[in-house]
Amino acid sequence: MVAVRYAPPPPPLETTRVDAYPRMPVAPVLAEWFPTERVVSCRFTCEDGRSLWYAAIPMKPRPAGMSRRQYVRRYLRFGSARLLSRARAKWYFRNVRSVGKNLIVRGRPLVTNRNMVIGDNVTIMSTHRRTHFTGEGLIELKDHVIINSGAMIMCVDHVTLEEHAGLSIEAVVSDSNLHPIGSDPIFTAPVVLGSGSWTGLRAVIMPGVRVGSRAIVAACSVVTKDVEDDTMVAGIPAKLVRKLEYPEGQRTAYRRDDDKQRHANVFARASAQLAEGEGTDAGMMGG
What we know:
CATH architecture of the largest domain: 3 Solenoid
Number of strands: 25
Oligomer: single chain
Largest sheet: 8 strands, mixed
Shape: globular
Radius of gyration: 22 Å
């Protein structure tokens, strides 16, 4: 993202319409290419006519042998997906307390908790299952948190996901049992998922639990007690399986710190090979 525009842009050379997310109350995107600035400018317009997002994507030089129209359309396959994600983030989290930079949202999360504080570079998936944030307590998602499809956070008091914490598909985090059990009153206590921890598929984190840094909660586990740093727990109730050892400096339990650079190197090599080939596909990837 290199620019945010508020003044009317100059007349475009090429104009292409791209369908927005089908169930989002945003009209199709108007994407325009300005040859003098080498950017794609996209505007998202709500049903009531007000502009929701208007930004520009930098474009690389057009490969030889590719028409301008082909170049714009192929580039929008990548650029418009990112802009649509940013527009969904602004729409679905428009009523929460604060949202940091570069929130990525895919799908249609259900947000009924307005008392949310979201950090920078947070990713929220809500595709084949809707991700749900509910309750009236404070939900804190700190920087680089990842929440996968179908996860649910029920907050009455306070739930915190620290930096780089991750929730897998359909995991549940609750800081309250929501109703009395026998003669016991309703129990509510804050929940903390430590930095770099990973909560596996359909695991349940009960009230008052703290999951330690870089700890792993195995799939379908029910965690009723605190989990130490750098450990793996599993079962119902969850028990210690083993201690975990990580390479020096690794921040998360689920991803190596050099993964991003390694993937970038692989993509760069593939792009270079495609650029040497023939056809517009090769030119698009390499250009």
